Amino acid sequence: MRTALIYHHDAVLNREVLPRFLASFTDLCGVVIIREGRKNVLRRIRSEWRRSRFQVLNTFAFRLFYRLRHAESDSRWTRDRALALAARFPHPGAIATIETDDPNSEEVRAFLKSLAPDLVLARCKVLLRPAVFGIPGDGTFILHPGICPDYRNAHGCFWALARRDLENVGATLLRIDEGVDTGPIYAYYRAEIGEMCESHVVIEHRVVFDNLDRIAADLQRVHAGDAAPIDVSGRPSAVWGQPRLSDYLRWKQAARANSR
User: Fold this and answer.
1) pTM of the predicted model, to two decimals?
2) CB 3.0–4.6 Å: which of 27, 133, 147, 188 could bond 140 by disulfide?
3) In angstroms, rounded to a whole number, what is the distance separating the alpha carbons of residues 8 and 78?
């Protein structure tokens, strides 16, 4: 199975672990590294404004709070976890690589077509267009940090935690289509989490990176044609936005009350 990988340059676990991971059981033939510019950040701010209007201030308040309260410790946790996981897999050696600020660009399309991958794993915040996600024969897959279709779009784990929907704190393996996390679903992953001591960022990482062995097996089943999409008809489906400070405080308050 020939594979390619798409990720953001500043995503430490994706950068340090996933190339080694994919190369350990597939022929990893190429990597697309996204270096986002200011226009991408502004686009997400506009999208959040359209979704929540003045609640965007609640979102900015959370970002400041997170930076002061969790960013440093989460960064240490991520580095340590990346080192531990990377040690499990051999270095993949030289791999064809392209860097871009737009994974939908003609250069990226030409690069992926030249690789002719069977499957692409995309760990990115940018919605890919059909001209890109339709290149691999098996499809382009994401590991979405949230249980779909219930928690689509960004930070699904955060919103499941904030709503006390603990059974739906997890990740989803799905094949990209033209919607926002609406493609066929092939697997769910969950992990042991510590609500009291872990941030939503650590939990979002755990539900993916604590399940690498299962993910490898599921991707191989997809390529072999042995995996059927999960029937989610009748399930609730919602698009969620960025974390908000008020929802974070309610989550932690409820977690403390539950631990007594």
Assistant:
1) 0.91
2) 133
3) 15
